[in-house]
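note to self: dont lose this again. the chain is below, predicted strucutre after it. 276 aa total, dont forget to put it in the shared folder this time
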Amino acid sequence: MTGILNWNELWKVMRSGSAWRRAPEKDAGFWDKYAKRCNESVMQSKERAEIQIAKMELDPEYSVLDIGSGVGRLAIPIAKRVKTVTAIDPSKDMLAYLKENMEKKGVKNITCINKRWEDIELGEDINPHDVVIASYSLGMFDMQEALAKIDAAAKKCVYLFEFAGGWMMDEKLWKELYDERHPAWTGYIYLYNILHDMGIYANVEIRDSDYEQRYDSLDDAVNKWKEMHNIPAEKESILREYLSKMLVEDENDGMLCFKRKSKSAVIWWKRKAHEW
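---
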C-alpha cells in the first residue's frame, strides 16, 4: 500500500534526474567497456566480499541467485559455500571475466545468464532460488517491479547491498562538474520504503566502510573518472585539480590512491516469514 509519498515514483524522478544516471552509455555496452578495469579492481576486494557474505545465512545445499553479478566478486566465494549459484548480468564481457575467474578458482557450480533483470522471466529463464542477492546493482527504472520479482524469486531470504551516503564524489565537486545539485545518493532508503509500501518489512543495517581506488598516474585517474562518471570534457580541469589534491602516493609501489570513507547498507528479509 502506497502512503502519502510514492517512493517508487520518487525513485524514478531521482534516477532520471541525475546527469550521471542519464548517461546513455550506462547500459550493457558501457559495462562491457568497463569490464576489464572492474575485474582488475573488484576481484582484489576479498575482505569486503567476506564482510558481505558473513551477513548471509548460507547452507551447503542452497541455491543462490546473484543479480548484477559482474565479474563474480561475490558469486565465486559464495559458490564455494553452497550447492549452486546463478549469476545474472546484462554485460557479456563481465560474464566472460566471471567465467575466467571461475576457471582460475576451480569453481564449476555457477550458471551465467546474460540478461537484464527486467527481461528475466521467472519460470522460464530461472526458477526460484533459496537465496537472492544484489550488491550495488539495482539501477532499474521501476524499482517496485524489480523488487517484486526479486521477492518472488527467493524461497528463503533476500540480501540487498546499497549505498547509504558518503559516496566518492562530494557535493561541491558534483555541482561544479554537472551544474546541478548532488543527488545525495542514499539508495537504500528508497529501497526500504518501497519494500515497506509493498508490505515487506525488511531489516536494515548501516555500517561504515572505506573506499579505495588505485591509479598508475594522475592522467590515468582523470581518464578513468571521465569515463566512469560521464564527466563533460570541458570540466576536465576541475576534475584534475580535485584529484591532484585527493590522490595519495603509496610508498610501497608508487601508485596513486584515492581513499574516501562512506556508509553502506544491507537490507534483508526472510521470504518464508510473509503470508501471501
